[in-house]
Amino acid sequence: MSIWELLGDIFTIHLVLATLRLATPIALIALGETYSERVGIINVGVEGTAVLGGLVSALVAFYTGSPWIALIAAVLAGGLAGGLHALWCIRFRANHVVSGIGINILVAGLALFITSAVWGWRGTSSYSDTLN
Amino acid sequence: MSSFVRWVRQSTFLRETGITFLSIALAFGVGCIILWVAGYSIPAVFANLWKGAFGNRLSIGQTLTKATPIILTSLSFLVAFRSGLFNIGAEGQMYVGAIAAAVVAAQLHLPAVLHAIVSLAAGGLAGAFWGWIPGYLKARRGVNEFVTTMMLSYVAIGLTDFLVAPRGPLHDPKYMANQTARIDLTAMLPRIMKPTQVSWAIVVAGIAVLLVWYYLFRTPSGYELRAVGQSPTAADYGGVRIRRKLILALSLAGVLAGLAGAGEVLGTHFRFVDGFSPGYGWDGIAGGLIARAHPVGAIFAALLMGALRAGGMQVQRSGAAPGDIAAVLQGLVIFFIIAPTLVRMLFRWRRRRAE
């Protein structure tokens, strides 16, 4: 097997597709963080914000069966988390980094609590086949 | 008598402690609302939380065992915090300290007490090295310590995982589990509350609290470290060598987190077990914040974290609610504790001095 065949085996169209798929959430989160940084507020809580969006979209999709309502709800939930961070940093003068860590820890706990309360599995929602 | 009343009214200690307790009460209040919305019995959850944390001798032992490493990781966070740095990497420093202590405790052969002390020192030194790297990068190259400490945590967890995995250099071939060989009897920290796992590690943690307090508030070097944290420009003007102080602060943070790992190996598991920490390093961040970066407060903060962990397990076992409610409560406590302005506003406490 020549080196070119080997490289051809590695760099397939599937690699490009997987890269795009895995880069999508990172690109969106980075875009959000850019807004925050532009106004001079560090938002370490983007991780927790993203997890909250995932949790809320799973919950809403599970109960309504509609991916579009779930998407809107997730966007609103993300806005809520960002608003909370803003309230804490600007109004209550909390430390930016610490408030972000707070969001991350709180949402990580909430995600485990709510998934096991609703679906009975710690950290996993059930599969919704209405979304195909 | 009037001087006592004046002391009560003006004491920053009482005010800060009061705000801390009100924050914790607020967090538990919001926790109750979440439980109520989710449809769980609030009294049953809190009864089990209490039973699991302080109900009997065994549960108190559980709480203390879990609080021991959190005391040290909280100290690790707050030492760096006092110099204006964020040490998010206590988890990794703990893993590195634990594996170093496990190697020294199993491979060297020394007399009883000396062996334990040397093993603890090895853990502290390994942690110091893991804290020194981000300290050096911060001081000499201006690299954000927040990112480097956090990323080095994942390096440490992956590295130790590789070392103790089957066919890894430190794997104990007697078992399939990812762990090192059992440590020598001479290196073990004796259990002090049998049959629970509470060991001399908790005494080590207590001594560390005293030493950190003395260093921060009673030595010139500790004073300079706090000065760098409060105002780097003023400290620079005063002749403090800021870069050295930053490296020192993160190295010290590494020592404390490394001791936490060494204590777990020498007092609790008697070997390095892969993934032994359920997140004690991350709890240290919360603990350091709840303690308001005061070493003595770290004891109480760690007890709260340990009690929530032990109580959460009992909540899960009893079926009253998912045990993860403990993690939710922990997050809420952090949230309210970092916003003293909110608590003051809610309870209409006027600020007596401009801060």
Average pLDDT of chain B works out at: 89
Low-pLDDT segments of chain B: none
Radius of gyration of chain B (CA) equals 21 Å
Instruction: Give the oligomeric state.
Output: heterodimer
SSE pattern of chain A? HHHHH
Report the count of strand segments of chain B.
0
| Counted beta strands of chain A | 0
CATH first level of chain B: Mainly Alpha
Mean pLDDT of chain A: 87
- Give helix % range of chain A: over 70%
Cα-to-Cα separation, first versus last residue of chain B? 29 Å
Biggest sheet character of chain A: none
Strand content of chain A: under 5%
Radius of gyration of chain A, taken over Cα atoms and rounded to an integer in Å: 19 Å
List the helices and strands and how they pair.
The complex is a heterodimer of chains A (132) and B (355).
Chain A: H1 3-10, H2 13-38, H3 46-64, H4 67-91, H5 96-118
Chain B: H1 2-10, H2 12-38, H3 42-54, H4 57-82, H5 90-107, H6 112-141, H7 145-164, H8 201-218, H9 220-230, H10 232-237, H11 242-269, H12 280-290, H13 295-318, H14 325-337, H15 340-346
Helix pairs in contact in B: 2-14, 3-4, 3-13, 4-8, 4-11, 4-12, 4-13, 5-6, 5-7, 5-11, 5-12, 6-7, 6-11, 8-9, 8-11, 8-13, 9-11, 12-13, 13-14
Summarize the structure.
The complex is a heterodimer of chains A (132) and B (355). With 132 residues, chain A is mostly helical.
Keywords:
heterodimer; A: 132 residues; mainly alpha; 5 helices; globular; B: 355 residues; ABC transporter involved in vitamin B12 uptake, BtuC; 15 helices
